[in-house]
Amino acid sequence: MYIEDVKDQMNLPESVRIFDTTLRDGEQTPGVALTVDEKIGIARKLDKLGVDTIEAGFPAASPGEMNSIGRIVELDLDANTCGLARVLKEDIDAAIDCGVDYIHTFIGTSPLHRRYKLKMSPEEIIEKAVFGVEYAADHGLKVEFSAEDATRTEFDYLLDVYRAAEDAGADIINVPDTVGVMIPRAMNHMVSRLVDELKVPVSVHCHNDFGLAVANSLAAVEAGASQVHATINGLGERAGNAALEEVVMALITRYDLPLPVRTTELVSISEFVSRLTGVRMPPNKAIVGENAFAHEAGIHVHGVLEKAETYEPITPEMVGHKRRIVLGKHTGANALRSKLREYDIEMNEEQFCTLYEQVKRLGDKGKRITDADLRAMAVTILGKA
Ligand code: KIV
Ligand code: ZN
């Protein structure tokens, strides 16, 4: 309703490509290192999910990394397999040796990167960027170019860099919010200007340092960005990247954009990646968290049991999740009756009241009541009858 009111103020693209970087930026999550087989397992699941591009890693990082990227290329997936490279011959050669058909090449452009990291003049950086893009394009690769720390780069200079990359043969221009400093309105403004000025599609790569990665990615799409970088479970450097499951579900259900993603696979891939990386999701994580479709408060459970949409914005089935009715001090009689029905437990009114009181008493003590606890309590009450 309210979204429709503002849609005509947006410059939405016809569709949005999903560039998954779980195996590259996601693997840069502190403490995470995946084996070759684990990377292959995740790549297969990403392909089944239907992402457009899989950034499989950073080939120049190590021989092991080259090996795993090469093995992912051999899978001959439907998704493009991409490798990350600095704008250096040796990095691009390493990616070519892995057999990727798509390269994501980058160089820092902000004053901080120019002065402290690269120790290069603005002109030298443009020269290097042009070299990298041309070299990759001359080798027949699809080229995506990123100006690292774009969102802290002077706009006129950034545009010069991007125009030079475009003229050198870049197929896509990516805008990294490398340290997650943007806010949605500024991201929208910046991307609008870039979309107006550039001929090739514009993509965004948002970090989550202020918890705004998904919001900034969506603001960029509203401005015409037609590709979003994301990771499963929002993994990535520091506070991570935009969470793929959140971006995808927002684009499909809030913006009505047609994405060829099999959303019913989202919970399964989230759990798989969580198990392999050891990074557990908080229960209240949007879309895939244990509590994303769990209800405890009596009023909510009553509403959901009557009509799920009262307290659920989408169905759990849409993302491969399950609705859960949780018992605790907020539980209402309706919820308890529905649980008993679920387990085929029949009770008279007196027995039901005893059980209901026990649930409330335990809930008041802050106890979590599992379904197994409930069944045990019910059996005891029935046994006493
Ligand atoms: O966050 C970033 O700037 C990156 C680059 C490699 C694009 O991950
Ligand atoms: Zn990044």
TrEMBL record:
Its EC number is 2.3.3.13. Pathway: Amino-acid biosynthesis; L-leucine biosynthesis; L-leucine from 3-methyl-2-oxobutanoate: step 1/4. It catalyses: 3-methyl-2-oxobutanoate + acetyl-CoA + H2O = (2S)-2-isopropylmalate + CoA + H(+). Residues 16-267 form the Pyruvate carboxyltransferase domain. Coiled coil: none annotated. One of its GO terms (molecular function) is 2-isopropylmalate synthase activity. Its cofactor is a divalent metal cation. It comes from the Archaea. Keywords: Acyltransferase, Amino-acid biosynthesis, Branched-chain amino acid biosynthesis, Transferase. One of its GO terms (biological process) is L-leucine biosynthetic process. Homodimer. Belongs to the alpha-IPM synthase/homocitrate synthase family. Catalyzes the condensation of the acetyl group of acetyl-CoA with 3-methyl-2-oxobutanoate (2-oxoisovalerate) to form 3-carboxy-3-hydroxy-4-methylpentanoate (2-isopropylmalate). This is 2-isopropylmalate synthase. It comes from Methanothermobacter wolfeii. The chain holds residues 1 to 385 of 505 of the full protein.
